[in-house]
Amino acid sequence: MYDGRLARCRSLMKMAGVDLLALTPGPNMTYMTGFMEEPGERLLTSLIPREGEPLFLVPELYEEQVAGSTWIDSLRVWKDSGDPMKELATAVAGLVAGGKVALDTRMWARFVFMFQQIVPASQLVDASMIMDELRVVKGEEEIETMRRGTKATDRAMEMVIDALKTGMSEREVAEVIRSSLMRCGADAPSFMPIASSGPNGSQPHYRFGDRRLRNGDSVVLDFGGLFSGYYTDVTRTVFLGGVEREQERVYNLVKEANEAAVAAAKAGTPAQEVDRAARLIIEEGGYGNSFIHRTGHGIGLEVHEEPYIVDGNRRPLEDGMTFSVEPGIYLPGRFGVRIENIVQVEGGRARRFDQYTRDLQVI
Amino acid sequence: MYDGRLARCRSLMKMAGVDLLALTPGPNMTYMTGFMEEPGERLLTSLIPREGEPLFLVPELYEEQVAGSTWIDSLRVWKDSGDPMKELATAVAGLVAGGKVALDTRMWARFVFMFQQIVPASQLVDASMIMDELRVVKGEEEIETMRRGTKATDRAMEMVIDALKTGMSEREVAEVIRSSLMRCGADAPSFMPIASSGPNGSQPHYRFGDRRLRNGDSVVLDFGGLFSGYYTDVTRTVFLGGVEREQERVYNLVKEANEAAVAAAKAGTPAQEVDRAARLIIEEGGYGNSFIHRTGHGIGLEVHEEPYIVDGNRRPLEDGMTFSVEPGIYLPGRFGVRIENIVQVEGGRARRFDQYTRDLQVI
């Protein structure tokens, strides 16, 4: 599997005129090398030259761990008491002189500045033109992992919604989300869960607070888990005790927008058309100014990645792409509604991974 | 509080000849602006000029959330369908022309490249020379938050160790860690918890796997939580069923090294002396080559920050600094031992925040 990725990576490097690719801990390193870690302050990078042997520059405390999880044989180890900059200079000198060096799009500025000092004659560019292209169409194993993860997330959603009741605090709901995800086999939550109730629901990325659920609230539940390196991300909105006429109208509009977007997501269709399909429904319903974000984002080794389902993205969808479809309506001081599915384009059409009901639910 | 931080920040900017400071979501933005978020692919930055009004460049979906959590009045909002680069160019043009621009040390390369294009006449530098200096000595409120968080983490450690038994998988232990942290009031775990048993303990940053605990294992438990924006981080190592002679010897050596380091951590002492104190004990015990990382790291809004307790760091410790003391011994294929306290320098001496026993425990 890694052989194929390396070959495709190098052909993209060649097309882009890139001589060296430097990756940092995160999705790109995981994809290319198999080693998975959170970013940190110690310089840990995999260096992939267009020709010749790739190598890993590794802090000593990671040596055994990296060696045990990657196919790259050449490890250059530095000690906490040593000088990572000197090690990097030596490592890079053997791989490139001048030319173009592509840096991981997530590389921290502190390391970008190191590269600037070490290869002042090189042009430094964003590696996303290579890595996004490589990763945007998923392989079968990746799809299978994501499908399994989303099924587990469906079960977690059911457990969470079954546990909801008035009087619980958002924080308690967030705890139920976390424990349900773990019980369903996640290695970690994808991100700090969102359990926003009532007026808090109008902030799309609100997390949770101490507000208690009341009758009449809408509750936006947005979470996902990490499964064998791949993220899931789903959202449902439910109502407590009853639903007012406008809440119901808004809910049905968001649901309709979700369905229009999924129907529009066909192989060959530009990504922005999916956004337009959802936006049109919401605009015609009179809430255009309250749909304050794009319709979706690709998902895989990152929670947000290509293809972005956003106005301006003319890239045609292809079989094997996976992304979210998540229109929403946000009314400050009142409430918010969002419904998010993860879909895969397969056989030309979008199919949902998550199957938990999208019907209006009053708890 | 933020007034004082801004004034100190600007005087450091002046000393460093920095005209503009650009921060990204993460510890520095939280510290200066009060707004807390995970880093992401959307450009979200606070721009602090040496003189004049600071401003926030914010994606539309964050507008309400940022406005509700920061003292900065001037918000420049961009839509998902817009061009963040153009917005940034306009925002920056009003604040700086040429000069020196300091970028958050954690800013992603993609945004560093944006700044390069927008202010090609400016010198871009790492903002850590300003931000590390600002944050390295904690204020009273920060200390109080960290003390409270570490107390809660002590309780979680007790719950976790009480729950350990042979037959449990490392993954199950990790779940107990997470749920205990949440029950003790954490907003999230500090990082993916470490529950490494037997031979897995020799990889300092191993997380957890499917291995089941057996009699004779050492189990390294390393975790912490996020409490009101501040991280905790503690480690204990326990033994199951019994302890072999070498395990006991190694444990006592690590404990002795921990105590020597805490005793050495006095105001005015260079940070590296604390590392030396721990290392000397372990070297004299014959395990010098098996202590493969620095003795500690500062902690606060980041899990790892200044002051690093590492050979080569001559910076004198001061009252109000908070850091970990965590010597360890790692024997590949066999086992590992680490004991980690969080300490604060106060009244000239290091005091431990966490109080859970460091005595050898056999479960």
- Biggest beta sheet summary of chain A: 6 strands, mixed
Distance linking N and C termini of chain A:
46 Å
Structural class of chain A: alpha+beta
Question: Total number of helical segments of chain A?
Answer: 10
Oligomer: homodimer
Widest sheet, order of strands of chain A: 4-3-2-1-5-6
Average pLDDT score of chain A: 97
Strand % of chain A is 15-25%
Q: Cα-atom Rg of chain A, whole angstroms?
A: 22 Å
Largest interface, with counts of residues having CB < 8 Å to the other chain, equals: A-B, 53 and 53 residues
Work out the helicity level of chain A.
Answer: 25-40%
Notes on the protein architecture:
The structure is a homodimer of 363-residue chains. Chain A has helices at 2-16, 27-33, 63-67, 84-93, 109-118, 128-135, 140-163, 170-183, 245-264, 271-284; strands at 20-23, 45-49, 55-59, 74-78, 100-103, 123-126, 188-189, 194-197, 218-223, 225-227, 230-231, 234-239, 296-298, 305-309, 322-325, 328-331, 335-338, 341-346, 349-352. With 363 residues, chain A is an alpha+beta fold. Chain A starts with a helix and ends in an 11-residue tail after the last strand. Chains A and B meet through helix 3, helix 5, strand 6 and helix 8 of A and helix 3, helix 5, strand 6 and helix 8 of B.
SSE layout:
The structure is a homodimer of 363-residue chains.
Chain A: H1 2-16, E1 20-23, H2 27-33, E2 45-49, E3 55-59, H3 63-67, E4 74-78, H4 84-93, E5 100-103, H5 109-118, E6 123-126, H6 128-135, H7 140-163, H8 170-183, E7 188-189, E8 194-197, E9 218-223, E10 225-227, E11 230-231, E12 234-239, H9 245-264, H10 271-284, E13 296-298, E14 305-309, E15 322-325, E16 328-331, E17 335-338, E18 341-346, E19 349-352
Parallel strand pairs in A: 1-5, 3-4, 5-6
Antiparallel strand pairs in A: 1-2, 2-3, 7-10, 8-9, 9-12, 10-11, 13-14, 15-18, 16-17, 18-19
